[in-house]
Description:
This protein has helices at 3-16, 22-25, 27-34, 38-61, 68-89, 93-108, 111-120, 124-156, 158-179, 191-197, 201-204, 207-239, 250-259, 261-275, 277-296, 303-331, 337-366, 372-396. The chain is mainly α. The chain has one domain: Up-down Bundle (Growth Hormone, Chain: A), CATH 1.20.1250.20. Helix 1 (3-16) packs antiparallel against helix 9, helix 5 packs antiparallel against helix 6 (93-108) and helix 5 (68-89) packs antiparallel against helix 9 (158-179). The longest helix is centred in the middle third of the chain and has 33 residues, at 124-156. It is globular, with a radius of gyration of 20 Å.
Amino acid sequence: xxxRLLLAxxxxxxxxxxxxxxxxxxxPQFVELWSLSNAQAGWISGIYFAGYTVVxxxxxxxxxxxxxRRIYLASTALTAVSTLAYAVFADGFWTAMVLRAIxxxxxxxxxxxxxxxxxxxxxxxxxxxxxxxxxxAYSAAASLxxxxxxxxxxxxxxxxxxxxxxxxxxxxxxxxxxVLPAAPPKAAPSWREVRAAVDFRPVVRNRAAMxxxxxxxxxxxxxxxxxxxxxxLFVYSISVQEPGAWxxxxxxxxxxxxxxxxxxxxxxxxxxxxxxxxxxxVGFFILAAIVAVIFGMSLDWPYAALVALAGLMVxxxxxxxxxxxxxxxxxxxxxxxxxxxxxxxCLGFLGGFLGPLVFGYALDFGGGASxxxxxxxxxxxxxxxxxxxxxxxxxxxxxxxxx
Length: 403
């Protein structure tokens, strides 16, 4: 395992994703500042993942033909520019939507292309384990983003929070530009090769891979819904506590919970390697669904108990995130690993777009963020999606019947 390169990519992931929670961490503030509905807030939270979803199939599939370094650096620069532009120009629903979508496009060219660059330089036996570390770094980056944004906002306001996180993305560019050597030059791919790279029909015919990819959609749906709405949930919970009751700030609680994603990702991947990806993924999904149902019925619990239950949900979903990704990498055809990872990422972040959006609509449908019944509906939708993910892995991991 190339530990130096892995460390560099993990550090760049943390720096480049400093903007990741920019909107979610400050969601109540933006709702008030721009008079947003819960559905509009869900759109802004989810559009980041929609931008990712639109371009990731092409960018990641092209890593089978082009040097991933070029894609990674260009995308990191785009992340920096869009985040700095948000700091200067964002003034309402539409500007926030456009700039967050562009930032999502930047993530599309860094997250999976970075994993492709790492796995290309890793032996077959180490590939699943390095995937676990890299996925765990994603969880750490998402968690630390809440910390960065929360601290920056507290001291200097939300515009500086985005501005400083944009500068951190420039630092990520510098790290990879220095550490990752360029691949030997290749002839520019022909149009036929480009079309072959983005032909996903052979990938779709890989039933086991499709099962894990649908599961990834469900995992990211749940994780993104939680990350988008935990701060607002904790603000609601604090508002219904007894006067004088102790409580962490909502942003700090969300940040600490998301940090649990790091050990959960590592532990989940190790359990999947030991006991099998299908068993691990299905088990984590069922546990996450149970916790989501309990969560929805427990919003009148003391604040500390609610945060602890949220932590259990974070553990189950993030443990499954690394397990599902490791499963996809393991069953992918070697010659189509880039295309498989592209479709995997595309479906996953489609879930990342839909999770916050559907949750926001559920809140509006149920009466708003100040109604406990609305939160129950939102978490019920997460539980249903988890069960769908489990069913996909079970059904598609079975050999197809011969006609």
